[in-house]
Design goal:
The chain is mainly α and 356 residues long. The chain has one domain: A middle domain of Talin 1 (Up-down Bundle). Helices cover 77% and strands 2% of the residues. The protein has 14 helices and four strands. The protein has a two-stranded antiparallel ribbon. Strands 2-3 form a two-stranded antiparallel sheet.
């Protein structure tokens, strides 16, 4: 009981630090880099923000492959699949609920959703025979390179100069716990001693933020596993639910922050772009490293539940696309629907795990 309580406190502390780090350091440095590169909100969200906030999933996949000779590789895969569902349903859903609705650019959303669906096709193709080869791993890395090039070349058309911009939807004011402002200010002051002003030292702040995100996510993941073991949750359930949600915390915090500012396109692009990063880099890079360094001829992967996972990924993506395309926005009501669907996914996962 004491160990479970301690792990729960570590989870809360890690999430709190992630919130401060993301709000006051990661997002400002990302904005500065985006301005330097002259990237739109959608491109920045689908590339820089997605790569930075998806670092935990990449770290988990690497650790899983190099633990006990790769016997735990399915844990990393399960975390990424669960994280993909979390990103689509919870990140976009909660962003819409908190911000009072999300207005998006339909061109960018079509581009990002199409790219993500192609990444799912890649996942199904390489998992089909239950074994990953080096050419298949390299194909994923090449695919992400094509995706980044697509983001730069396939830009959304800009509105006419005399077209008035639509005002952002009214955001719901976030209620913070008593004493949070004082604690937040203290943490910011401590971190600024290492980063300086994020807007000026944006490159250093961005890199340090990613390192700290990975470190905090490692603590979060370890504490989550200990807590789950203490209350008797099977490892596969941990990977698909608690582990996935824990490693997606930076994505969630970053997307909610920009959604409050009225940048709905960036919030949605971050969720979808993070999924594309996870499937193409989060899986393919560890496979490439393991196959190269360990001299393996292939990496076995469990494909028994592959088509169920693929079906869930495709279904959640199409539901989100339907909501976004109909009125070119994600309403607060639709956000609640997505959150309820995630609750159904967790319930299904728990029941299927209990049946094992």
């Amino acid at each position: 009981m004491a160990e479970s309580l301690l792990s729960l406190l570590l989870i809360l502390a890690a999430v709190m630090l992630l919130a401060v780090l993301t709000d006051h350091f990661f997002i400002p440095s990302l904005d500065a880099i985006s301005r330097r590169l002259k990237l739109s909100d959608e491109v920045a969200g689908a590339s820089l923000m997605a790569m930075g906030s998806s670092a935990p999933e990449l770290a988990i996949a690497l650790m899983a492959l190099f633990t006990d000779g790769g016997t735990h590789s399915d844990v990393g895969i399960g975390a990424i699949v669960g994280s993909a569902v979390f990103n689509i349903l919870v990140i976009t859903g909660l962003s819409a609920v908190v911000a009072g609705g999300l207005r998006i650019h339909i061109f960018a959303i079509r581009r990002d959703i199409l790219s993500y669906l192609l990444a799912i096709v890649y996942l199904a193709a390489v998992f089909y025979d239950g074994r990953i080869s080096l050419p298949e791993a390299l194909l994923g890395l090449a695919g992400y390179g094509v995706y980044l090039a697509l983001l730069i070349v396939w830009k959304a058309p800009q509105p006419a100069a005399n077209t008035p911009a639509a005002p952002p939807p009214p955001a719901v004011e976030a209620r913070k716990l008593p004493g949070w402002h004082q604690l937040e200010a203290l943490l910011v002051a401590i971190l600024r001693r290492f980063t300086g002003a994020p807007e000026k030292n944006f490159a250093w702040t961005f890199l340090l933020s990613i390192v700290l995100i990975v470190a905090l996510s490692y603590i979060l993941v370890e504490a989550t596993i200990v807590f789950a073991a203490g209350i008797g949750i099977p490892p596969v359930i941990v990977a698909l639910t608690l582990l996935a949600a824990g490693t997606s915390a930076p994505d969630l915090i970053a997307s909610v922050d920009v959604a409050r500012e009225g940048r709905g396109g960036m919030a949605v692009a971050n969720a979808i772009g993070s999924n594309t990063f996870d499937l193409l880099i989060g899986l393919a890079l560890p496979w490439t490293v393991a196959l190269t360094l360990l001299g393996l001829h292939g990496i076995p992967v469990g494909s028994a539940d592959l088509w169920v996972s693929i079906g869930i990924l495709v279904a959640t993506t199409l539901i989100l696309a339907l909501f976004l395309i109909t009125k070119r926005e994600l309403s607060r009501r639709e956000g609640w629907i997505l959150l309820l669907l995630y609750g159904a996914f967790v319930l299904y996962t728990l029941l299927s795990g209990a049946a094992l």
